[in-house]
Design goal:
- There is one protein chain.
- This protein is α+β, with helices and mostly antiparallel strands.
- It has one domain (4-110, 126-298).
- It is 30% helix and 14% strand.
- It contains twelve helices and eight strands.
- It has helices at 4-15, 60-64, 69-95, 133-139, 187-191, 219-226, 236-240, 255-265, 270-273, 286-298, 328-331, 346-349, and strands spanning 19-24, 46-53, 101-104, 144-145, 151-152, 160-167, 197-207, 210-217.
- The strands form three sheets. Strands 1-2-6-3 form a four-stranded antiparallel β-sheet, with helices on both faces. A two-stranded antiparallel ribbon has the order 4-5.
- β4 and β5 form a beta hairpin.
- α1 crosses α3 (69-95) and α6 packs parallel to α8 (255-265).
- The N and C termini lie far apart (82 Å).
- 37% of the residues are buried.
């Protein structure tokens, strides 16, 4: 017989997830049609949600300005693939007891990719239905959504990614618990290099007497930074385009515009070329994860503790200026590359009548 306890034991001990919880389908009654589990699996009775931790050391190189790939791979892209593998194993386990189950993609923004489909018929959901993973994790009792919209747990603070499995099996749900981790300090908003997190406006829903709320986000600014186009957050764009001023906090782009610009520029930057076919996380989540993590660790709210450096860092994070690295007087719009061989003495030519 399949029970919640038996499923959790398998997921924790065999699949090696770090935490697992269950929500009943009734908790999603007020979800919009394009985020409702029943528009993915019409006979679903339970939403199984699990997490795998992001190893804290993946943030070290970004905080100190030494190494970026670890977070992009082990805190994001590769970890997403591990979630898919875990969801498959959990769904296969459920099938052994005669119930259907399906894992869901972690690509929460997939609806904005590709050609738009026809408008749905009246009363029908849009073509792409994407479950809100962080709300699902909250409704499954795993933790709560912080002001930054990042999901928080007692075990790891903001350091995890979320996997979801829908099943027709009716399993005992876990209690919802909110309001015990995020104290609304808004350090996430203050330290976000894009200024993408509002300190005043919020978005929220009510479920079973719980207020689930987070700060309103500017997804365009967030995506520009996430894709490495914020000079304050990563060195690759600044190195390739030293004379370009692109203060991300002043931009008014949509998420899709930011996505398209990032992918257009990926092939021009050697560090991104091999990864340009896949989503890539270059920002290091400076405010939404790192700032929050430092705050929660300092308050003693995170159970995953460390012998050395109990608080991740008290120092100011590494940062580059947004202003261009050189000026018009140095190049007159012609060329600027201190290492170029083809042009002799670029600096002396800058003031000559040749221009």
């Amino acid at each position: 017989m399949l029970t919640a306890e038996r499923l959790k034991e398998f997921a924790l001990n065999e699949v090696r997830v770090d935490k697992i919880g269950i929500a009943n389908i009734e908790r999603f009654a007020q979800a919009p049609p394009d985020m409702h589990p029943l528009n993915i699996m019409p006979n679903a009775r339970s939403v199984v949600v699990f997490i795998k931790r992001i190893v804290r050391g993946t943030y070290r190189g970004i905080d100190e300005g030494t190494h970026w790939p670890s977070y992009s791979i082990f805190g994001y892209a590769h970890l997403n693939r591990m979630l898919g593998s875990s969801a498959y194993k959990i769904a296969r386990f459920i099938e052994r007891f005669g119930y259907e189950a399906t894992g869901l993609s972690g690509a929460a923004a997939s609806r904005e990719i590709g050609v738009r489909g026809p408008r749905p018929a009246p009363g029908k959901p849009a073509r792409e239905v994407v479950l809100h993973h962080r709300i699902a994790a909250t409704l499954a009792g795993l933790g709560e959504i912080g002001w930054s919209k990042v999901f928080l747990t007692e075990e790891f603070g903001p350091r995890q990614r979320i996997g979801v499995v829908l099943t027709e099996a009716e399993l005992e749900p876990d209690p919802i618990r909110t309001g015990h981790l995020c104290d609304r300090c808004k350090r996430c908003a203050k330290e976000c290099p894009a200024g993408a997190i509002s300190t005043e406006r919020s978005v929220g829903i009510e479920v079973e007497g719980h207020r689930i709320e987070w700060g309103d986000l500017d997804l365009g600014k967030c995506k520009l930074t996430h894709f490495g186009l914020n000079k304050r957050s990563s060195p690759f764009f600044a190195k390739r385009f030293p004379g370009l001023s692109l203060p991300v906090s002043e931009q008014e782009v949509t998420w899709r515009e930011a996505w398209d610009l990032g992918y257009a520029l990926f092939p021009t930057m050697p560090a991104f070329q091999s990864l340009a076919a896949h989503p890539i996380a270059i920002c290091g989540a400076r405010g939404c994860i790192q700032g929050c993590m430092k705050h929660l660790e300092k308050r003693g709210k995170v159970k995953n503790r460390f012998r050395t450096r109990p608080v991740f860092s008290e120092a100011e994070p590494w940062c580059l200026p947004e202003t261009p690295a050189h000026t018009f007087a140095e190049h007159h719009g012609f060329i600027y590359d201190p290492e170029v061989d083809e042009v002799e003495d670029v600096e002396s030519q800058a003031g000559s009548s040749w221009y």
